[in-house]
Amino acid sequence: MRQTIKEIETNVVYRWYLVYSFLDKVPHYGTFSKNYTRRFHDPDLFEQIFEKILKIAIKNSLIDHSSLFIDSTHIKANENKNKYIKKL
9, 26, 43, 85: least CB-packed within 10 angstroms? Predict the structure, then answer.
């Protein structure tokens, strides 16, 4: 939380996104932290917000259903290299 507030104080892009002018005072990180824990105590809340945004995007034809992308991180198998058969 401290680092986020420090970024908001110094980074123009954060200020623009949050609609803070250069003269606006950024809230103390403690205020941000307390609000965060009080408002988002429900662990399912972020998923509900995401689903609502997704439904709005689908309703307004902002999502293309012609392709599907899945995380394809390459993970090497944990195999026994002495127990395999070479095939040509």
Answer: 85
